[in-house]
Amino acid sequence: MTKVVRIHEPGGVDRLMLEQIEVPPPGPGEARVAHRAIGVNYIDIYHRTGLYKLPALPAVIGVEGAGIVTAVGPDVDEVKVGDRVAYICYPAGAYAEERNLAADRLVPIPDGISFERAAAGINRGITAQYLLNRTIAVEPGDPILVHAAAGGVGLMLCQWAHHIGAVVIGTVGSEAKADLARLNGCQYPIVRTKTDFVKEVRQITGGEGVRVVYDSIGKDTYAGSIDCLRPLGMMVNYGNASGLVEFVNARELTLKGSLFFTHPSLFVYMRKRSDLLASARHFFGLVDAGILKIHVNQTYGLAEAAKAHLDLEGRNTTGSSILVP
Fold first, then answer.
1. pLDDT score for 246
2. Which residue range or ranges hold the Enoyl reductase (ER) domain (predicted)?
């Protein structure tokens, strides 16, 4: 029997149930992974609340983990028993001691990177990789705005963009988070609760605005984010911490500078295994070189999943959070 955290119906953290289930042998194209660490992400909250619907209930939640391959099914040549691997993928099922999943979604963990850092970093690192290199190719000197700059993806975006040579502006929720963002490459942290971030961005950029906004907050920051963009700038709405952006006015995008809007998905960008492996190698290579730091700032037991969700929803976390089975 395997311990898992699953939901039988959407709702609050009281819907997270620690249970035991049988995990069958891996099927064709599948591998079994014994988790050593599990990533906690906002998408887990969306699954729990029903904002993003799961295919069927009851369901184990979680989409990110790292561990050891303990068995493989027929027709698997991507991994072998004993491999150290990490993943970020659908279907959900990571909040578990072990699970089966498609072997072509697993990526190797370099020897110098721990399971904890791999589980905390694979989602954020691959997200930052495609946002900065494929959604829009950020170049040296580009002014950019990163919302939630002290969060998991925010810190990674700030570090990576700074490495590229961009001018990194970020919004945060407190002075302490501003200090953390500054230490991770954000040259201009703005405490959003104290300052009008649109005015600050315009002042920092000499009135020009930024080339791109990376916004994981959503509804509360959308209007201001649009006003921070220069002509032909891009609004990248990749998260919904404050709620969905439910309406985008095409005419407004035209009038404010022929702006671009996108709501990208990692799972679309990484649908090809070749893209997944290339992104993972790029990310882990920069971590191994000491250029990118993975901040594992909160660790919980599997039975503490509810607390992990409450802390993340309450914006009481910085960097990454993991569960340890």
1. 83
2. 11-323
Phi, psi for residue 183 in degrees, rounded to 5: -70, -15
Nearest-angstrom CA–CA distance, 202 and 33 = 48
In the chain, pLDDT over 90 holds for what percent of residues? 90
Rounded to the nearest 5 degrees, what angle is found at the Cα of 196, between the Cα atoms of 190 and 197? 45
Structural contact between residues 138 and 114, judged by C-beta atoms closer than 8 angstroms: no
Contact 228, 201 (CB under 8 A): yes
Residues 150, 172 contacting (CB under 8 angstroms): yes
Distances (CA, A) of 202 to 120, 190, 228: 34, 12, 7
- Residue at token pair 């391959």: 69
Structural domain boundaries of the chain?
Answer: 2-121+273-324, 140-263
Q: Kindly tell me if the per-residue pLDDT of 300 is higher than 90.
A: yes
Task: Give yes or no for a contact between 94 and 66, defined as CB atoms under 8 angstroms apart.
Answer: no
- For residue 198 the two structure tokens come to 């649109």
Bridge-partner residues for 150, per DSSP?
A: none
Residue 204 phi, psi dihedral angles, 5° rounding: -60, -35
Give the number of C-alpha atoms closer than 13 A to the C-alpha of residue 155, restricted to the C-beta side: 25
The C-alpha atoms of residue 56 and residue 274 are separated, in whole angstroms, by: 29
Choosing among 3.10.290.10, 3.10.150.10, 3.10.28.10, 3.90.180.10, the CATH entry for 2-121+273-324 is: 3.90.180.10
Among residues 181, 190, 129, the alpha carbon closest in space to that of 150 is found at 181
pLDDT-based confidence at residue 120 (cuts at 50, 70, 90): very high
> Residue 42 in 3-state DSSP?
helix
Residue 23's φ and ψ, nearest 5 degrees, are -105, 120
Residue with the two structure tokens 């580009």: 142
Checking 274-279 for CB contacts under 8 A at 24+ apart, the result is: 276/105, 276/107, 276/126, 277/107, 279/126, 279/129, 279/130
